[in-house]
Amino acid sequence: MIIIFNPTAGQRRRQRLERALAVLRHVGQEFVVTETTHTGHAKALARAGAAEGCGLVVAAGGDGTIAEVAAGLAGHGAVLGVLPLGTANVFAWELGIPVRPDAAARLLTEGEPRLVHPGEALFTDRTTRLFVQMLGAGFDAAVVANLDLGLKHRIGRGAYVWQAMRELGRYQFPPLRVVFEDGEARASSVIVSKGRLYAGRHLLAPAAEIARPGFQVALFHGSGPMAAAAYGAALPLNLLPRMPGLTLRHATRLRIEGEAVAVQADGDPAGRLPVEVRVAEAPLRVMLPRLAGMAQAA
């Protein structure tokens, strides 16, 4: 077992990691911990570990770290394990992975690998970005792009709320064009979701199935600060899917166009529009809680 740890969030995250490691030591599980030092390092470490024959590669961090490790495992047989140490931990909540470090550590030794189907973003410079939970373009991506990381480390999710309030006063809500295989649509913001949840445990895409190829695409038609504030107020109440001005539709491939609009993937800045979004070439095996009567993924 290789554990890839993102230490950037400071001492609290390291303390949570140590609680998980204590459980692994207690059950006699051998492991090696490696720490990331820069963007893309987790992907390289995961790829190297899988190439060397490691059967379980663990992402210890937030959703961005998980996505990087998942990208490094693409095309290899290694299983992705998760120690959710991030701010929102959307991927963990989506799949029933415990967010308590001790329980998440036990899952690494007691769970079963099952398949999930990530998404992939292709930008005009031919770079690609794998995402495991969601990709956004528009207002939420502007919040992510301009987020004060120091503030995020100090107050957690509150930093996103603070930055969203700042963006309400300055974001211009440029129109976006979304091209599907069977037509096109216009929106002020777009979230392409692999799972049901967004920004923690909040419901966005009720029909999304992370274990199947494809996405549920949220098209936000309301434009301007009043509409964005209304969407934000509905989110913690789990009312967002029923909000006027929001359309949800299924897709397996789409293109989002807009004039230099920011894109975020799994809560990290990912680039600028235009972007093509598609199902990743291969599914990913993830260590998850055992399901009664379900055969272990091959």
Radius of gyration: 19 Å
Structural class: alpha+beta
By oligomeric state, this entry counts as single chain
Mean pLDDT, all residues:
94
Give, in spatial order, the strands making up the sheet with the most strands. Answer: 7-6-19-16-9-10
Please give the alpha-carbon distance between the first and last residues: 19 Å
Helix content: 25-40%
Biggest β-sheet strands, sense, barrel: 6 strands, antiparallel
SSE string, helices as H and strands as E: EHEHEHEHHEEEEHHHEEEEEEHEEEEEE
Which geometry do the CA atoms define?
globular
For the secondary structure, the number of strands is: 20
Q: With helices defined by DSSP (H or I, 4 residues minimum), what is the helix count?
A: 9
Q: Pick out the low-confidence regions.
A: 293-298
Strand content: 25-35%
Q: How would you characterize this protein structure?
A:
The protein has 298 residues and is of the alpha+beta class. The protein has helices at residues 11-26, 41-51, 63-73, 90-95, 101-110, 139-145, 149-155, 158-168, 225-234; strands at 2-5, 32-35, 56-61, 79-84, 112-116, 119-123, 128-131, 134-137, 176-180, 183-187, 189-193, 197-198, 202-203, 215-220, 246-251, 253-257, 262-265, 268-272, 275-279, 284-288. It has a six-stranded antiparallel β-sheet with strand order 7-6-19-16-9-10. The protein has a six-stranded antiparallel β-sheet with strand order 15-14-11-8-17-18, covered by helices on one side. The longest helix is centred in the N-terminal third of the chain and has 16 residues, at 11-26. The two termini are 19 Å apart. The model is unreliable at 293-298 (pLDDT under 50).
